[in-house]
Amino acid sequence: MNAVAAKATNTDFVLAVEGLTVSFDGFKAVDDLSFYVDEKEIRVIIGPNGAGKTTVLDLICGRTKATSGSVKFRNKELTTLKEHEIVKAGVGRKFQNPSIYEDLTVFENLELCYPRGRNVFGALFFKRDAKVISKVREVAEMINLKDELESQADLLSHGQKQWLEIGMLLIQDPDLLMLDEPVAGMSVTERKQTAELLRRITNDRSVIVIEHDMQFVAEIADHVTVMHQGKILAEGSAEKVKQDPKVIEVYLGH
Ligand SMILES: Nc1ncnc2c1ncn2[C@@H]1O[C@H](COP(=O)(O)OP(=O)(O)OP(=O)(O)O)[C@@H](O)[C@H]1O
């Protein structure tokens, strides 16, 4: 199904954002925004600084409350839920700054996020059963860290720390994962590996990524949504939006 050409009433989407608006003291940071994300889709949101990209993710994950509009995740309205309820519903969000535990190993960081032990006390003292160990290994493999399971997290490279954080979300099996500039500060090799990683993880989930690196965008995006002043300026394939004169004028030409 073509997510871009979707109708508001369609309920087959993983995520349906409709008429989403938030005002900060009268300033509309997100203004009547509608878009739809399909199963297994990688959607990339691009746009100039201040366009409202991060605010959209904040609205979806419940960190910011919408002034009006709707966010439906598998037909469940999210705008009335609290942040932790949205996580529980299956939406994971990675912020720009890594929030890993530097003095714990990769294994322990992943284990800590296993749904059974949500707080530090619970996670460190619950018995490591075979199910947890196998899940940690499976995720570590997915994020290229299977040989680093016993390494302390502060010894990892910047890119590996970013992957670990993605892993800490993956271990909770979200159906929708949202990543804010996942390759910022990464080497060329790490960017390539991250693109492959994203492809792997969308085998059974959808991903929304905010990104500025157009080469990376072209590599990963199924659809691109271009935002400007809280609204959608253009939508389509990376190839299509790259050639759009409006997009070149407000963003790519700078
Ligand atoms: N809590 C808030 N209170 C007031 N204004 C806010 C708040 N959050 C965001 N804004 C404003 O909303 C606008 C959109 O910000 P946002 O961070 O979403 O943009 P962005 O597209 O993610 O930009 P960047 O690429 O620089 O990260 C900006 O003008 C910002 O100052």
From TrEMBL:
The keyword Protein transport does not apply. Keywords: ATP-binding, Nucleotide-binding, Transport. Residues 15-254 form the ABC transporter domain. The keyword Signal does not apply. One of its GO terms (molecular function) is ATP hydrolysis activity. GO terms for cellular component: plasma membrane. SUPFAM superfamilies: P-loop containing nucleoside triphosphate hydrolases. PANTHER family: CONSERVED COMPONENT OF ABC TRANSPORTER FOR NATURAL AMINO ACIDS-RELATED, HIGH-AFFINITY BRANCHED-CHAIN AMINO ACID TRANSPORT ATP-BINDING PROTEIN. This is Urea ABC transporter ATP-binding protein UrtD. The gene is urtD.
